[in-house]
Amino acid sequence: MEVVGQLQKQYVDFITSLFREAYLDDQYVQLQKLQDDSNPEFVVEVVSIFFEDSEKLLNDLASSLLVSISLFWVFILCLRPSLLLMVVLFFLLFLFQLYSQQQVVDFKKVDGYVHQFKGSSSSVGAQRVKNACVTLRNFCEEKNLDGCSRYLNLVKQEFYLVKNKLETLLRMEQQILQAGGTVPLLEQVPLLWKQ
Amino acid sequence: MGSDCSSIVAEELHVLAVDDSLVDRKVIERLLKISSCKVTAVESGRRALQYLGLDGEKSSVGFDELKVNLIMTDYSMPGMTGYELLKKIKSSSKLREVPVVVMSSENVLARINRCLEEGAEEFLVKPVKLSDVMRLRDIILQGDENDEKKGSGTGKRKLQDLSPTSSLVRDLTPLKSASAAAQQSCLKRPRL
């Protein structure tokens, strides 16, 4: 039983830190409350769907912000021109790309994807991802391509961070269950601390 | 005594949930199942209309078997929005009485007003909580009790005669209404 106690304490410390650092919010606890013996894998199922959904959304987002013109960069490099010529060509292409990307990106479509991502991250309690999505949407509304690109990277980063944390968390839950203990629900945490 | 109770109390509420997000469908399904509701979850307004038999095609199954007591729909969906679905349902003679609840992650007052004006029962801000669903269920059940009381004038109900004055009479003369009170308790009206 000592093992269980230790595992439980580690779990509580970990999940508390996730809350403190806003990786997760109260919605995650709400999901845990919906899990019971009749549906013991509920949280794992929802989180798995979230992971799958998100990877797809991130791909869709990346491709809708990407412009095929970047292939020209590769082409230029393959030509192996003189350094001066290369610099001039890069510069011209850079300007052209900047101009064309503004016209080519469908911000409404991007906004649609981000809205979906915001929704699903909110539904599992992934607070930092959700917040990043909110800012990303603002850039979409402003048609700010640079802002969009930057924040898409941030959204991606936050997603992979929370994915990692959630996988660790769920693994810890499994360990507790396998050791014969029960997973402490966050409301019970203050009691555990008192012990 | 049980057979006198509203038929909805004996059966489960059947809820049609409409949401394009798989994550949200999973969550709302669980929320509803925990609240003892039967759930059918579909991913678009189109599919919802198909299910409800409103898409103009003759369905082979009779409407009664698919009776839906509540429709919960997301607002922003590709294709047909929840608002458009709401309008279609409210303009159907067959289904306009079915309560429709709209859910949205965005707390936009204009949006809320628009939905309520179009006849939505309620507007829930996502993520939806268990307390929201249980509250809804109680509202729907209560609404159905009221309908039953108003509508079905069968002999069994004669002790509970439905005007407010008769309930006053019941309050004043408790001895007379022992069986009425028993019947009343099975309808779960807390104030009585």
From TrEMBL, chain A:
Offer one example of a GO biological process linked to this entry: phosphorelay signal transduction system
Which domain of life, per UniProt? Eukaryota
Tell me where it resides.
Cytoplasm, Cytosol; Nucleus
Q: What is its main location?
A: cytoplasm
Task: Provide the Gene Ontology terms for cellular component.
Answer: cytosol; nucleus
Q: Which UniProt keywords apply?
A: Cytokinin signaling pathway, Membrane, Transmembrane, Transmembrane helix, Two-component regulatory system
**GO molecular function ontology, one term from the record:** protein histidine kinase binding
Against SUPFAM superfamilies, the record matches this protein to: Histidine-containing phosphotransfer domain, HPT domain (SSF47226)
Which InterPro entries does the entry mention?
AHP1-5/YPD1, HPT_dom_sf, Sig_transdc_His_kin_Hpt_dom
List each copy of the HPt domain by range.
45-161
What residue ranges are annotated as transmembrane? 82-99
- What's this protein's function? Functions as a two-component phosphorelay mediators between cytokinin sensor histidine kinases and response regulators (B-type ARRs). Plays an important role in propagating cytokinin signal transduction.
Report the domain remarks: Histidine-containing phosphotransfer domain (HPt) contains an active histidine that mediates the phosphotransfer.
Q: Could you tell me what this protein is called?
A: Histidine-containing phosphotransfer protein
Q: What is the lineage of its organism?
A: Eukaryota, Viridiplantae, Streptophyta, Embryophyta, Tracheophyta
Automatic annotation (TrEMBL), chain B:
| PROSITE patterns given in the database record | RESPONSE_REGULATORY
Q: Which UniProt keywords apply?
A: Phosphoprotein, Transcription, Transcription regulation, Two-component regulatory system
Instruction: Please give the residue ranges the record annotates as the region Disordered.
Output: 145-192
Q: Where is the Response regulatory domain?
A: 14-141
Which GO biological-process labels does this protein carry? Answer: cytokinin-activated signaling pathway; phosphorelay signal transduction system
Pfam families, per the entry: Response_reg
Positions of post-translational 4-aspartylphosphate modification: 74
Q: What is this protein called?
A: Two-component response regulator ARR5-like
Record the organism.
Olea europaea subsp. europaea
Lineage of source species: Eukaryota, Viridiplantae, Streptophyta, Embryophyta, Tracheophyta
